[in-house]
């Protein structure tokens, strides 16, 4: 009797109570704004006076003609390319080096040290490097001086042609330990018999890396690539803290340009249009990531 | 071993160690510099940047504390603690409902909750501001609590769900025989069994909430509701010339999470690894 009652639809529906808080939070604060954003992107909207006017695709048309939008997009792209080089391929190589150390204590210690910058906030890291790059008291110019390269010293964040690269360099410093750690975990999961077999064959460390490690962590490499690209298009914190998008908009990225358009220049419809572009990019990357994971599941 | 490694092998290993240790120095030195600068005077800071502080006084820390850092720290602790509790419970409930309870539409609900992982917070920014203004929660502690919870529930549910899926079915049957209701079974049996993953999710959420900047910056402006990351930037802009005080504030913001990482390393690594590729 009891079991029959338990299976009754009412009882089953009661089980929904477990998931309702999560559903409500995600639905109202994650999905709903996303849908609203499309609508907002068709408005000319002044949030202070509250005036809203439907302008169709006008914001998107303006976007296409906006040089700062394109330079922001280019900066995000540069961010992605450099981060893939250092935080995916560089980190994979580094993880393989660290994991080749025989002493467990050294392996653990190095992984932990490399990770420290990822534990502190991008705000602290960004402020720290603001000072590292500072022309008068900064470490970088003084270090260049100390090794006789003082003539290369400059105001790294103060000029358009070095500012973006300086921010990206800081971000590599902050993030490489995180991906190194994840690659290390992936390498540890490779069955030791495979390395044993390679050692018996007399395979050297470089060939072992190319023919054993790289193919066997391929899936992690794919995932890290997606995470890195997606992250590169969501950059906001470090740019805001270090340059605020300047000088002369040279370090503007999509996130900061969105913020500036909406909250400083009071053009929320335009900001929403930038958000739509970000949405398409990040969703595309997420879909690719899903595809990588699914394919693996089929293979196994 | 050395003979088999050969001369070239020894050289290669030497280079490797120089590289690995050099990289460690590149990571640690700026952090050390930051910590030392918190003890310097402005004149020392602008002198030789490699020098040690002359007088190890906590004066800059005291100043930083009085210029708002105490408020920022309190807000950060409050937001971190409350949003951690909310996120972990809401996610654990959802994970339990999706894995151990027979509920209608469970597949669709799973996709909806985990699908939230794919959406970037920046995209939702403009509508969220309007929404929170309409609710009268703009520029309040509640905005951060709600947003940190809502945007981290997908990831946290993902981790806990994966763990619960691996728990044996017999556990629920045993609970059923004991006559324990769902509620009791969750609190007394399933949740304690999930302790390792719960620890991971707590630590990862603390790292997130402590360091988050985008929402904290957009949704708060008064010093009573600003968290440390935003507070540090106002410390910088308000007292811009007294840099050692800013360094002291940075150290105050960084130390708790670095300690957290060192003590919870095992759980953090496990959570990160499961979170990306399980």
UniProtKB/TrEMBL annotation, chain A:
Parts forming coiled coils: none
Transmembrane segments: 12-34, 77-98, 110-133, 163-187, 216-236, 268-292
Keyword Membrane applies: yes
PROSITE patterns named in the record: ABC_TM1
Keywords carried by this UniProt record: Cell membrane, Membrane, Transmembrane, Transmembrane helix, Transport
Domain of life of the native organism: Bacteria
Annotated compartments: Cell membrane
Protein name: Carbohydrate ABC transporter membrane protein 1, CUT1 family
Lineage, highest ranks first: Bacteria, Bacillati, Actinomycetota, Actinomycetes, Streptosporangiales
Automatic annotation (TrEMBL), chain B:
Family designation: Belongs to the binding-protein-dependent transport system permease family.
PANTHER family referenced in this protein's UniProt entry, alphabetically: ABC TRANSPORTER PERMEASE PROTEIN MG189-RELATED, ABC TRANSPORTER PERMEASE PROTEIN MG189-RELATED-RELATED
Stored Gene3D superfamilies: MetI-like (1.10.3720.10)
Subcellular location: Cell membrane
A biological process from GO: transmembrane transport
Organism field: Streptosporangium canum
Coiled-coil parts of chain: none
Membrane topology value: Multi-pass membrane protein
Domain ABC transmembrane type-1: 73-264
Protein's recorded name: Carbohydrate ABC transporter membrane protein 2, CUT1 family
InterPro entries: MetI-like, MetI-like_sf
Transmembrane helix among keywords: yes
UniProt keyword annotations, A-Z: Cell membrane, Membrane, Transmembrane, Transmembrane helix, Transport
């Amino acid at each position: 009797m009891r079991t029959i009652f338990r299976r009754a639809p009412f009882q089953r529906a009661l089980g929904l109570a477990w998931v309702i808080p999560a559903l409500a939070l995600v639905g109202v604060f994650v999905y709903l704004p996303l849908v609203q954003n499309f609508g907002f992107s068709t408005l000319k909207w002044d949030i202070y006076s509250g005036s809203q006017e439907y302008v169709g695709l006008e914001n998107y048309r303006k976007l296409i003609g906006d040089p700062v939008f394109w330079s922001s997009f280019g900066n995000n792209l540069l961010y992605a390319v450099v981060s893939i080089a250092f935080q995916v391929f560089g980190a994979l190589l580094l993880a393989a080096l660290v994991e080749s150390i025989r002493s467990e204590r050294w392996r653990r210690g190095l992984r932990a040290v490399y990770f420290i910058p990822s534990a502190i906030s991008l705000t602290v890291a960004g402020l720290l490097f603001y000072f590292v790059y500072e022309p008068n008291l900064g470490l970088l110019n003084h270090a260049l001086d100390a090794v006789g390269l003082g003539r290369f010293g400059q105001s790294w964040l103060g000029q358009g042609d070095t500012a973006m690269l300086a921010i990206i360099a800081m971000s590599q410093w902050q993030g490489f330990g995180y991906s190194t750690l994840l690659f290390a975990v992936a390498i540890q999961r490779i069955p030791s018999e495979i390395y044993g077999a390679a050692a018996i064959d007399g395979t050297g460390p470089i060939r072992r890396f190319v023919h054993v490690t790289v193919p066997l962590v391929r899936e992690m490499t794919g995932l890290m690539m997606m995470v890195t690209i997606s992250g590169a298009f969501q950059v906001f914190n470090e740019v805001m803290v270090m340059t605020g998008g300047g000088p002369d908009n040279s370090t503007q990225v999509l996130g900061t340009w969105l913020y500036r358009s909406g909250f400083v220049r009071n053009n929320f419809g335009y900001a929403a249009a930038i958000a739509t572009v970000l949405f398409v990019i990040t969703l595309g990357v997420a879909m690719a990531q899903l595809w990588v994971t699914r394919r693996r599941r089929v293979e196994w | 071993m050395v003979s088999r490694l050969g001369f070239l092998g020894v050289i290669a290993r030497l280079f490797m160690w120089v590289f690995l240790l050099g990289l460690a120095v590149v990571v640690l030195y700026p952090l050390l510099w930051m910590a030392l600068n918190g003890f310097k005077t402005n004149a020392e800071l602008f002198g030789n940047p490699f020098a040690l502080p002359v007088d190890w006084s906590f004066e800059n820390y005291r100043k930083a504390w009085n210029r708002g850092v105490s408020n920022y720290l309190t807000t950060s602790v409050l937001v971190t603690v409350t949003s951690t509790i909310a996120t972990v419970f809401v996610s654990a409930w959802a994970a339990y409902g999706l894995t151990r309870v027979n509920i209608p539409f469970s597949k669709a609900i799973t996709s909806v909750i985990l699908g939230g992982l794919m959406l970037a917070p920046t995209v939702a920014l403009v509508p969220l501001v309007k929404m929170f203004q309409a609710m009268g929660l703009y520029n309040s502690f509640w905005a951060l609590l709600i947003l940190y919870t809502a945007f981290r529930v997908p990831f946290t549910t993902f981790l806990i769900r994966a763990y619960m899926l691996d728990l044996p079915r017999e556990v629920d049957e045993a609970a059923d025989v004991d006559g324990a209701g769902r509620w009791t079974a969750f609190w007394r049996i399933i949740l304690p069994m999930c302790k390792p993953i719960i620890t991971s999710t707590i630590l990862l959420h603390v790292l997130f909430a402590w360091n988050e900047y985008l929402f904290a910056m957009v949704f708060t402006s008064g010093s009573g509701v600003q968290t440390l990351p935003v507070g540090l930037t106002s410390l910088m802009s308000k007292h811009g010339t007294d840099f050692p005080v800013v360094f002291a504030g940075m150290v105050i913001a960084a130390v708790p999470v670095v300690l957290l990482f060192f003590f919870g390393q095992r759980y953090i690594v496990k959570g990160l690894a499961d979170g990306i590729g399980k």
